[in-house]
Prior knowledge:
Keywords: Membrane, Transmembrane, Transmembrane helix. The chain is an all-alpha fold. Helix content is about 80%, strand content about 0%. Among the domains are: about 1-95, no CATH class; about 180-245, Serine Threonine Protein Phosphatase 5, Tetratricopeptide repeat (Alpha Horseshoe), CATH 1.25.40. Helix 11 packs antiparallel against helix 12. The mean pLDDT is about 90.
Amino acid sequence: MRKWSWSIISSLKIVFHWLLYFVFMLYMGKLIFSASDYKLKLFYSIVGIAVLGITLYYDYLKKLYRDMIEALTVDTNIELAKSRQKKLRQRDLFNGFKHSLILFDSLLLLDEKRYRDCLAHMDTHQTFFRSTVDNLFIYYHNQLHCHYFLGDTAAGKEAAAHLKDIKKLKQKAYSPLFSWDEIAGVAYALDNRYSRSVKAFKKVDTTRLNNREKSYLNTMLADSYRALNDSLNAAKHSALAQKTLIN
């Protein structure tokens, strides 16, 4: 998704939320002014302020979370993402974003090329990653990438096999978080079938990818072309991978 598209969507969400706040304030104002008893007026006032305050604070945390995700997936700026991650951790007093941060940390470690740390992090939080099919999808997809970049073929093939098991499930059982063509491309590369790998990668609908995902796709395409001794296309896709990286 292009950065301007992301910004438009975020702006529309903010406008919608402020409209809801306005309607809520009008409703609470009506209750307060229509109440005949001053104690009831006070009660409605306290309730209204408390609800509005909690809602505004939660929306503020959600904005910090969106900004953090945008820094990693759209800006592809690791240092900015880490800075925003730290800010969210400090502001999230009740650990409401604990699970979201577990997911984010796995992506961040992967992007920092700390593949073994990423694997260890996911193993530490296995209960969480195995709690839903979507989380398990992310778990094995991250595993696949980690083992691919570590050159651990056997473990990579095992992760690919788990992903195939998820693919066999009914579509409603999981969200379309990743491209199956991309997963097939990685699996072919792990099997040294680089021509098939290139064909699979080329089938990926890049219009549905964010900058982070495009960078990974082009990096792996470059690897496959390099293995096929196609230096021209390897250089082309290496350049495309770097083009989407800011940091």
